[in-house]
Structure formats: C-alpha cells, structure tokens
Amino acid sequence: MNDKENIDTIGLSRRTVLAGLGAVGIASAGAGLGTTAYFNDTESFEGNQLTAGQLDLLVDWQQTYDFGEGHQFVSAHPDHDGDGEQSIEIDGTVYKYSDFPDEEDEDSNGANIPVLDCETIPPLSEADFGTDPVTGEEMDTLVRLTDVKPGDSGEITFSLHLCDNPGYIWMQAGNISESGGAGTEPELIVDPDNMGDLGDAINARLWYDEDCDNVYDAARPVDIMLTLDFSGSMLYNQYGGVVSSDPITINGTTYNETTKIDLVELGTRQFIDFLQNAGADAQVGVAYFDGEGSNDTQPRTGILQPLTSNLSDVDNALSNLRQKLADVVTGGEPSSPGDGDGNPDPFSNASGIATGTYIGEGVDDAQGELDANGRASADKRNIVLSDGQSFNGTGSTQFSSPIDAANDARAASPSPATELYTINVNGSASTLLAMAGPAGGAGGDPVFFNDLDDPLNIPTVFGNLAAQATQEKVIMDDTLANVLAALADGNGVPLDGNRSTLYDELNDAPDDADRDAFRGDGVMHCVALSWELPFDVGNEIQGDTLGFDLGFYTEQERHNDGAGPSAAA
Q: Which tops the pLDDT comparison, 286 or 344?
C-alpha cells in the first residue's frame, strides 16, 4: 500500500502478495516507559517510542498481446487514461511507456516508466485491467484472454520496487486449473477425453528484463569503460568516505570499516566476474578521475586499465582500490596508481589531498580509449560513477564540462557513439542525469541514470549493469504448464537481487551465498513472462482454459537468511 500512516503491530517481518500484485507495508508502533526512584526523587524517561521498519513491495507492469497484428497494449499499472499503455501524470507532466524505448532494439516500442518509484506508484486498488483487444470484453483480472488462437503470443513485464528495507523476493503462482471446456467434434477426434491441454501447448519464457522493455535481449559484442571517481570523498572519513562501521571482505582482504571505494571495488569486480562466467563478447577498460593538488594545475585523471578482452587483467586493475585511490589523491603518480605501500587509513588527516572532481576529464579519457582501441563491430558503453560535484578545485585548470563531454561521447566526438550510464552516489544528481543517455541520443534519460541515496547499493547497480552487458538472464524456458508448476512449487522461484552473482534460481538453495536480497531503495528490477501458442498446435486445445494466479512474496533481509518460510502464506 502507499499509505504509510497506517499503524500496525511490531513483529511483522513477512508479507505476501499473491493473485493481486499488491504491496504491503509496516508503519509504526509506540511504547512508553516511566520509573520512580526512592526518597521521592523522580526521574522520568518520557516520550519513548519504538518504530517498526517498513517492508513495502510495489509492483507496476505492462502487458501486451499479439493476435496477428503486432503486439497491442492490453493492460498496465499505472495507466492514468485507461488505454492499456503504462502512463502516469506527475506534477502536471504525463509520462508514458512509449516515451522510453530502447533505441538500440528495433523490437522495442517503449519501457516501463523509469520515473516510477515508491512515492509515485499508485495502489493496486486503482489498477485498470483493460480490455481484451480481440473480444472487447472487460478484463477483471490481469490475464483474461478468451479467444486465443495458434500463432498468438503475449508478454508481461513486472517492475518490482522494494521500499524502505532490503528483502528477499520470490515469484509465485497458485490456483492453477485446466479444463477441456466444451468438446467440439474436431477436438474430440484427436482428444476423446477432452483433457485440458493448453498449458502444455503454450511455450513460455521467464527472465529478468533488465531494460524493462518487454523484449528478450540476446547478447551483442560490447566495449565498456568503467569511469570511476577517485576523489578523497570515496575513501576518507573526513569527507564522508566511510559509510559503515561494519567490516567488509573483498577477495580475501577484510577491512574494519566500509568505504565507498570498497563498495566500488566489490561491485566492479563482481561485474567482471559475471562477464567472464557468462562468456560475454566484451572488452573492458578502466578510467579514473580526481581533482588537482595544491602544487599542480593539471587534473589527476587517466586510464587505469586499457580496453582488453583479458578480463583477468581488468580484475587485477580493480583490486586494492583503496591504495590506488590514495596514491592519486595524495600526489602519487597518476599514470600508475597502486605503487604505494601499506593499507591507507580512512581515518587519517586528509586535509592535504587533491581537491575538485574532474568528471568531464574522466569521460574524455574514457572516450579517447574507446576511440583508440574499441572494436568497430561492438556497441560502446561508458559507466560513470561519482559522489561529487564537478568543479575547478583550488587551481586554475580549465576543465572539460561533464555535460559537454558526455554530449560529445554520445554524439561520436571523437568516434564512436557511446552509451553513457551514470551512477550518482549522493553527489551531483542533476549533472549526472544530464549526462546519461543512449548513443546518438539526448542526455537526461532516466533509463541510463542510477541515483543512489545509500552507497551500500553500489554493488547491486553494477550487477544490474553487468546483466545488461550480456544476454538477459533466462530463469526458465519451457511450457507454460511447467513454468507455472515451478512458480507454484513450495515458496515459488527465488529471485536474485544482484544478477552479477552466479545464482541458479531453479537448482540452487534460496539461501545460497550467491543469491542477494533486493535493496530497499525502490530501484526498479524487472521480471518478464512471455508466452506463445505455436502455429502447429492441433485441434486438441479447442475450447481449453488455463487459470492461474501470479504474485510476488517478500520478507525482510534482517533476521532472515533467504531460505523463506516453511510454507508460502
């Protein structure tokens, strides 16, 4: 629900959504405490309160149906004008599914609206299930198609937003029923018992639709630059670099606290590991940018790792980023960071480090590397992460505007035309959004922009971007009957909040170490279900019906290990 004012009791840690795709939250509860000492001396502790955390799963979707005339909009949520296309009006501006197409995918005519979040997704009670485009009948459930013919196909992309707290999510099915319906003469000749055969006849695919465009994307060759902020605020506590007192372990090294650059190392190395294990046709390089020191007038930017298909070299370049960053910001040789010795102390006095953040210069360096060593046959992508403003520092350096640098990169100046993905970690959101956009297109595209309030979500974002650099991950490719059976088995199919980890949703345990919870920041994750009734299906399906519920279940990450309840609620 969107109403976060409802009062509930403490202790509710699990919530289920089945057959309605709704969202449930936990709000707050209060408790008072007072005490009186002896000798008439009164000491009071007033106004005490316990507030229960919130676990709020919101779902939006876009459904399409192809009955011989191309995919038509069937239903969506939200759909402010009831025409079947996902749309919403926010502060007088209408956003529509067709406003956000994947410009590199000729089969895409849009994408689930990226500006939808925990504040703007309306409650399920406002959902409009649309009209069957063949029969014209109103649909009172998500799927109610009553004249399906061989050759028809359909698809639903669900967009999941877990609000407030991290949690594990399962996709579920229930109430599966099949009927042979009225037995026509042609059907009874081939199916004299008039069995329900429709589920076995329909081919289905369940997958992570990473770009939320209702289309399964196969692999393409890609050249990727990771352009990383190496400024002091990524490491030193003095400038907000320490984000948690919890220890973090990366590749066998444990640090007593967690910094932003640690999370970048964890996320980027998972990114590389995913590409390696997926056999991706990818080259990857690494650029970095900082500011300028008090004794120089040149921005400290450079190429940490040139583009290469040897991803082990990239993984090595991304190791021990604490030291490599420290070498840059404290005046180490920018062309070969990582030469310093020891373990940099995030709590040391960092007053003398370089100042400023040259995002634009970093983008220029990355674009130059793509121009020099990129492959003509490969898509070009630059993933830029920053936690700061781009400005001139304390010196007189004339720096490249980050927006101008991004505009040039997208427009192939210098060649090639490059997709700009940006990740804002409590920095200059407006600048990084203006930079983000497709190759050959305009900036300011929210599809290419990731805005993180919590740096702990950095690895998850890199995981999602890694999945977009390969073919989209298929969870199951089978008959619809078998897909529904898997979703109905036990607690359903456990979903992975970070697709860069090597998790098998059907064969690995739900509490496997490679399965991650979904972060509770409302970031959009899309799961899609497509179906097709082949042309060569015979008369045995005439009049058959297949009924089922679909839903999503979530439970909070804290105090749970992902194994799930003993039985789905």
A: 286
Read off the amino acid at residue 430.
S
Q: Where are the beta strands (DSSP E) in 290-345?
A: 301-308
CB atoms within 10 A of CB 99: 15
Domain parsing of the chain, residue ranges: 57-217+472-556, 222-465
Structure confidence by residue, pLDDT tens digits, 245-259: 999 998 888 999 999
The two structure tokens encoding residue 406: 């991004």
Of the candidates 99, 85, 95, 199, the one whose C-alpha atom is nearest the C-alpha of residue 131 is 85
399's CB contacts (< 8 A; 6+ apart) are 299, 356, 358, 360, 361, 390, 391, 392
What phi, psi does 372 have (nearest 5°)? -80, -40
DSSP conformational letter for 566: S
| CA distances to 231, 242, 337, 355 from 350, in Å | 11, 13, 18, 11
pLDDT value of residue 535: 84
- Which of the 8 DSSP states describes residue 128? B
Whether the Cβ atoms of residue 61 and residue 76 lie closer than 8 Å to each other? yes
Residue 428: what pLDDT?
84
Contact 24, 15 (CB under 8 A): yes
Q: What is the pLDDT of residue 391?
A: 59
CB 360 within 8 Å of CB 301: no
Partnered with residue 287 across adjacent β-strands are: 227, 303
- Judge whether 492 and 173 are in contact, CB under 8 Å: yes
CA 455/CA 450 separation, integer angstroms: 12
CA pair distance 548, 172, nearest whole angstrom: 10
Task: Say if residues 117 and 125 touch (Cβ distance below 8 Å).
Answer: no
Q: How confident is the model at residue 476 (pLDDT cuts 50, 70, 90)?
A: very high
How far apart are alpha carbons 493 and 260 in whole angstroms?
32
Strand intervals (E) in 68-127: 71-77, 87-90, 93-96
Q: What is the mean pLDDT of residues 441-450?
A: 91
- Report the DSSP beta bridge partners of residue 18: 551
Element (H, E) at 32: none
Between 266 and 135, residue with greater pLDDT: 266
Q: Which residue has the tokens 């997704």?
A: 121
Greater model confidence, 517 or 34? 517
Instruction: Give the DSSP letter string of 523-542.
Output: --EEEEEEEE--TT--GGGT
Q: What single-letter amino acid sits at 513? A: A
Closest to 261 measured CA to CA, from 323, 328, 307, 353: 323
Is residue 491 within 8 Å of residue 567, measured between CB atoms?
yes
State how far the Cα of 228 lies from the Cα of 284, in Å rounded to an integer. 13
What pTM, to 2 d.p., does this model score? Answer: 0.70
Give DSSP secondary structure letters for 453-521.
Answer: SSGGGHHHHHHHHHHHTSSPPEEEEEEHHHHHHHHHSTT-EEP-S-TTS---TTTS-TT-TT--PBPSB
Level-2 CATH architecture, domain 222-465: 3-Layer(aba) Sandwich (3.40)
415 pLDDT tier (thresholds 50, 70, 90): confident
Query: What distance in Å separates the CA atoms of residue 361 and residue 369, rounded to the nearest whole number?
Result: 12
> Band of the pLDDT at 154, cuts 50, 70, 90?
very high
SS3 call for 364: helix
